[in-house]
Design brief:
By secondary structure, the chain is α/β, with parallel strands linked by helices. It has a single domain, classed as 3-Layer(aba) Sandwich (Rossmann fold). About 35% of the residues lie in helices and about 20% in strands. It has six helices and five strands. A five-stranded parallel sheet has the order 2-1-3-4-5, sandwiched between helices. Helix 1 packs across helix 6. The protein is globular. It starts with a strand and ends in a 5-residue tail after the last helix. It binds flavin mononucleotide (FMN). The site of flavin mononucleotide (FMN) has 19 residues, from helix 1 and strand 4. The site of flavin mononucleotide has 19 residues, from helix 1 and strand 4.
Length: about 180
């Protein structure tokens, strides 16, 4: 089956370092791999509310249904995530919270469909000393998310930069990007 990569850009700005690094990595994808890019700011989701033990959940609609369907259609999910406060930026965290809803709609077969598929992550933080490890909590949370969903965890492509464009100076990250998907 041809691989279908869904890149979910979770920055709160356009043209940021994380998307730049992810696009370099995507250049090395095989020609027959499909790429689909979504910037989560373009698809606002309703507030997430935990109604698991009260009213339950209805079939998602609008942007939520579009994002659920795009997620289900992907063989490979790529979280494109700047580190915010040692964690995921809110657009990706909010999207991920909605998985808790989509998993509980039997017709979507969400958890069953994602099982065995692959989770990737392109992450950029502004650590000047990469040993500071600002992104370790977000990497750990994504590894655990993959495990919980019975997905394959491909590991992280990590870069260090702050102002837009600075990622071009992170030679180690640019070099790692060239082989991240190979
Ligand atoms: C709200 C906020 C929180 C941040 N928290 C961290 C952090 O915990 N650790 C860190 O190293 N950088 C942190 N940063 C810096 C960003 O990770 C960094 O600027 C990154 O390059 C942004 O990626 P982007 O250009 O793709 O948006 C934070 C930035 C913002 C705006």
């Amino acid at each position: 089956m041809a691989r279908r990569y869904l890149f979910l850009v979770g920055s709160t700005r356009r043209g940021g370092n994380t998307e730049h690094l992810a696009r370099i990595a995507a250049h090395a994808l095989p020609e027959d791999a499909e790429q689909h890019w979504l910037h989560l700011l373009d698809y606002p989701l309703p507030p997430f509310t935990d109604t698991r033990h009260s009213s339950g959940y209805a079939m998602p609609e609008g942007n939520a249904r579009m994002l659920a369907d795009a997620t289900l259609a992907a063989t490979d999910l790529v979280f494109v995530a700047p580190t915010y406060w040692y964690g995921l930026p809110w657009p990706l965290k909010h999207y991920l919270d909605h998985w808790s809803h989509w998993m509980r709609i039997p017709e979507l077969q969400f958890k069953q469909t994602l099982a065995g598929r692959t989770l990737h992550a392109v992450i950029v933080d502004s650590d000047e000393d990469p040993a500071d490890g600002s992104s370790l909590p977000v990497i750990d949370s994504l590894r655990r998310t993959a495990e919980y969903m019975a997905m394959q965890w491909h590991g992280v492509l990590l870069g260090h930069a702050n102002r837009p464009g600075e990622i071009a100076n992170d030679a180690a990250a640019i070099s790692a990007a060239g082989v991240y998907f190979t």
